[in-house]
Amino acid sequence: MLQDKWISKAIGLLYLVLFQISGFLLSSSLAQDKNTVDTSSFLPRDFLKAHDVKMLDDTLFIEVDNWDFFYPFGNLRRYQDIKKGQPQNTVIEKFIWYPYNGVPHKVFETDPVTHQLMERIDTTDTTDQVQAFRMSYKESSIEYFDDDSEDNMGYIILNGRIVNDSIVLHSGVKVGMSKRKFLLKYFKNVTNEILENVNVVEIFFPEDGGSFSHFYNFQNGILKAIYFRIE
Predict the structure, then answer these.
(1) Which residues contact 188 (CB under 8 A, 6 or more apart)?
(2) How far is CA 36 from CA 116, 188, 192, in A?
(3) Which one-letter DSSP state was computed for residue 70?
């Protein structure tokens, strides 16, 4: 009798464990279905030259092969072009960019008085220094560097943050526009599912030896911020 009692308890415990596991699997399946957005009928416009379109959580990821996305403000060839078309009171300042390790070249030497080891920036070594420019307008800023290599690609954006609607991209995109209007610039159709689930759009342009990305952040269906990043 005692053995039967323990067997009955073990069977009951096994049923309880199986019930909990099945409930967990069901909830995981529902969560996965909820986060899965069908992009197969989401048709990119031809000029986009999109290689890949997919949803990653709440981010719509678009990989493109169009050089226009490498130059969000057009192909800037002269220093004066950086400020051209930008709002009044835009400020441009120069700074040194260190592309290889992000920090100035430092040397160590002994102080002749204290005989202690000192660290200083070697201003004579310019091999890893690049002249860069920061364009600022209110809370927005964009950083460029002048590509003076043999390729001569003009002024290239290092990174940027735009939160003011006075700054307009070459494509006509600007902060404050609706998510639907933004997506229809690049896609032939927009589904309600996409509108409800997309909070960030990343446009990724791969380039030899690196990449350039745009990030468009939306809140309540409105474009609130634009970010650029080169890698």
Answers:
(1) 43, 44, 45
(2) 61, 21, 14
(3) G
C-beta of residue 206 within 8 angstroms of C-beta of residue 218: no
Per-residue tokens: 22: 């099945």
Does the reported pTM lie above 0.70? yes
Backbone phi, psi, residue 78, to 5°: -120, 155
In the numeric block, which tokens belong to residue 230?
A: 């080169």
Is there a contact between 193 and 179 (Cβ–Cβ < 8 Å)?
no
The CA distance from 134 to 144, in Å, is 6
Q: Comparing C-alpha atoms, which of 66, 23, 20, 6 is closest to residue 212?
A: 66
Calculate the average pLDDT of the chain.
77
- Tally of CB atoms within 10 A around 228: 19
Q: What spatial distance separates the first Cα and last Cα of the chain, rounded to whole Å? A: 72
Which token pair is 119?
Answer: 């660290």
Give the pLDDT score at 182: 96
Task: Please give the radius of gyration of the chain, using alpha carbons only, rounded to the nearest integer.
Answer: 27
Q: Write out the two tokens for 21.
A: 């596991």
- What single letter denotes the amino acid at residue 78? R
Of 100-114, 164-178, 200-214, which has the strongest mean pLDDT?
164-178
pLDDT tens digits for 135-178? 999 999 999 887 766 566 778 888 899 999 999 999 999 999 99
Domain boundaries, the chain: 39-72+169-231, 76-161
